Amino acid sequence: MAEPIKLSDVANTYVQDIDSTLIPEFSIGLAQIFNDTDTITKKQDGAELLDKVADAVDAYFKKKSEELADEKAKLEKSLTSLDALYKTTTDAIKKECAASGIGFLTPSFIARDRNREEDLNISEYSDEVAKLVKRLASKSDYVADLSDEYDGYKIGSWYFSGEKSYLVSAPTPTSPIIDIAMAANEIGFQLDLLAASMPG
Questions:
Q1: How many Cα atoms are found within 13 Å in the side-chain-facing hemisphere of 168?
Q2: Residues 156 and 173: beta-carbon distance below 8 Å
Q3: Which of the four pLDDT bands, split at 50, 70 and 90, describes residue 200?
Q4: What is the pLDDT of residues 57-104, one digit of tens each?
Q5: Pairing mode of beta strands 157-162, 165-169
Q6: CB 168 within 8 A of CB 122
Q7: With CB atoms 3.0 to 4.6 Å apart as the test, which of 42, 142, 151, 192 could cross-link to 103 if both were Cys?
C-alpha cells in the first residue's frame, strides 16, 4: 500500500461530492486514489483512467464556479477595495522607509520570530494608520512586503522588523469562490504529480 496523500481541510470538503460523480462513472474515487495511490498507478489502464478522472475533476470545479456568479461579483468588489488599500498603504510605507533610511523589501521567504511579533489588522487607510506606519517605520530595521495575490488583486501584509516586530495586514476575504480555487489547484496538483509518476 502506497503512502496516503494528505489534503487540506478545504480540499477534503469537496472530495466526497466529487466522488459521488466519479465512482458511478469510473468505479474509483479521489478518496480511494489519495488513500492508496497503488489503486490507480498499478492498474493496466491506470494512466488513461487518471486522465479521465482529472478531466472530470476539472469539469466539476468549472461547473461549481459558474454556479456562484453572484458570489464572484461580491468577491471582485471586495478584492478591488483591498487592492486599493494595498496600493495606498504600500506607497505610504515606501515613503516612510525612504525618510527613515531603511529598506523596503519583497522577499521570497523571511524567517520570523513570532515570540517578539505583534499582529495588527487594518481595513482602511486613515490618518491613524498613517501615524502608525510612520511610527513603526522609524523603529524598524527594514520593512518586508509579504502581501498575497489572488487573481491579480493584492491583499496587503507588511512586516516591520525591529527589536519588536509588527505584521500589519489587511483582512483576507472569505468566499466559496476562493475555497473552490484553492481546492481545485490542490487536487489538480496532486493528480498531476500522480500522472507524472505513472510507469511507462
A1: 23
A2: no
A3: low
A4: 999 999 999 999 889 889 999 999 999 999 999 999 999 999 999 999
A5: antiparallel
A6: yes
A7: 142
